[in-house]
From TrEMBL:
2Fe-2S ferredoxin-type domain sequence ranges: 2-106
Names of required cofactors: [2Fe-2S] cluster
Name of the protein described by the UniProt record: 2Fe-2S ferredoxin-type domain-containing protein
Homology family: Belongs to the adrenodoxin/putidaredoxin family.
InterPro entries, sorted: 2Fe-2S_ferredoxin-like_sf, 2Fe-2S_ferredoxin-type, Adrenodoxin-like, Beta-grasp_dom_sf
Species annotation: Streptomyces graminofaciens
PROSITE patterns to which the protein is assigned, alphabetical: 2FE2S_FER_2
Length: 107
């Protein structure tokens, strides 16, 4: 199963095992990673699971779909070109070693 690295705003890294076929948000929440609130439970309607995909991995993850793209305008922390909602990022073996950065605030 792929290993995904969540980097907290203070630079601390949490390496977690993410099940293929799940989403990044689930990997964070089930492993108690701080900073992923996920109020809506993964429905792309709260923007509290915002992450910045590491610039080295942008192509690997790909762009948001239209619904996610609209919600990304409502993130608490600034939206950046690498912003994604972690509940909309499907985990696959190809994401092994992925690094995502957790923003300073989610609400
Ligand atoms: S958990 Fe609500 S938008 Fe991702």
């Amino acid at each position: 199963m792929p290993i995904v690295i969540f980097e907290l705003p203070d630079g601390t890294q949490r390496k977690v095992t993410a099940g293929s076929g799940t989403v990044l948000m689930q990997a964070a929440v089930s492993n108690g990673v701080d900073g992923i609130v996920a109020e809506c439970g993964g429905n792309a309607s709260c923007a509290t699971c915002h992450v910045y995909v590491d610039e080295r991995h942008g192509e690997l993850v790909g762009p948001p779909n239209d619904v996610e793209d609209e919600m990304l305008d409502f993130t608490a922390a600034e939206r950046r070109p690498t912003s994604r909602l972690s509940c909309q990022v499907q985990v696959s073996d190809a994401l092994d070693g992925l690094v995502v950065h957790i923003p300073e605030e989610q609400v």
